Amino acid sequence: xxxxxxxxxxxxxxxxxxxxxxxxxxxxxxxxxxxxxxxxxxxxxxxxxxxxxxxxxxxxxxxxxxxxxxxxxxxxxxxxxxxxxxxxxxxxxxxxxxxxxxxxxxxxxxxxxxxxxxxxxxxxxxxxxxxxxxxxxxxxxxxxxxxxxxxxxxxxxxxxxxxxxxxxxxxxxxxxxxxxxxxxxxxxxxxxxxxxxxxxxxxxxxxxxxxxxxxxxxxxxxxxxxxxxxxxxxxxxxxxxxxxxxxxxxxxxxxxxxxxxxxxxxxxxxxxxxxxxxxxxxxxxxxxxxxxxxxxxxxxxxxxxxxxxxxxxxxxxxxxxxxxxxxxxxxxxxxxxxxxxxxxxxxxxxxxxxxxxxxxxxxxxxxxxxxxxxxxxxxxxxxxxxxxxxxxxxxxxxxxxxxxxxxxxxxxxxxxxxxxxxxxxxxxxxxxxxxxxxxxxxxxxxxxxxxxxxxxxxxxxxxxxxxxxxxxxxxxxxxxxxxxxxxxxxxxxxxxxxxxxxxxxxxxxxxxxxxxxxxxxxxxxxxxxxxxxxxxxx
Length: 538
Hints:
alpha+beta
């Protein structure tokens, strides 16, 4: 080989080596010069290591995007299915609905209005901030604040004083005794205070940092949210490495993807799809009785444009006009428990006789309308959304058909979940809510206060009920500090819900889950979709 050829070859090799080193240098330079902050969230990059095992990913499909991932602002399971894996509470619920410590070590009641909570040692948020008494106080003050709108069941601003007794002990002094105080503490997830204040109020909902087993990675709107295992998690390491929460609005598409194996868990399954899912051979179909009641709310404000709904005979008549059991059987596939009030069977003082008051009687409904002065009916807008539950639109349209049959001119308005939610929740001052709308409300067993303060009291976030009598009974009930003292008011309230209805009552919901058998998880045994409680099937 000539010297010229050798020289040319040598130069070519050197150029290739320079290019390789330059590329490597550029990559590491980008990594090293990325702005960092002790309060910024950290992510596990272990899956990018060459020859590392493929991360085990669980893919969950939901019908819509969350409104927010801010645990103090988001409401409903759509957002909670995500943020509960990032943010944890001082206390939470086990499969028997018993309150159990999570971030708390213990609690002590000092007097009727004084409580202390001791935190577990050594817990940090995923960005390194310490979970201490001051961090806890910051979270409870934020959750109770009315400076910004809170769409979740609000942690009431009834703590008159917070005190950091020491690094790991918080003292709560209440303005009044509360028989459900520990349950209320279990309502507030913890956010990293310094980081949250750094990014600002509105940004928290798009990138929360908590103490949980997973950390936020990304959110592509209307497509997917990605979480990864928290490499500094204080508790037991979860088996699942990665969570992808996909938004798939169409129910049929969610089922198809489940059958094809591209999705691991779906909920709100329509009962007609259960046979197809079961026949796939690798999918478990699990009906779960929910702590939610489906109802059609009445807007009894003057501005609602339907004065007929201010007449209690009309509101009673509408309850007699709808064959709810037929809806349960034919639309819900039998998955539902008839209700004639919002007082669930797992609440203290449940009156079964009152709960079965409204039977299907269209002739009685017509007679009551005539007695109320509406023999020819009236005009009515009835709103629903496509993702309130698996059959929300069909249920609402069926209700509309039953009301039409007794002479009411019903227009059913169908919106997407996000739009309907924005109109209803805390929308009283905007005055955009129609006279009737399909809605449901959930709460923990026997923790009935959220139903009272969220739906039935005129000040509730989803309440358009200004029927006289409700606020007085609810206020008196909540002022009582013993179960015995509350009992007569509970009975009065159930009677009022029948005599002067706040809603057209429908049924207690079931949710049908489909779970790929490669995952060991039964939704019946778990209050929330905590992926850390899932395991890889052996």
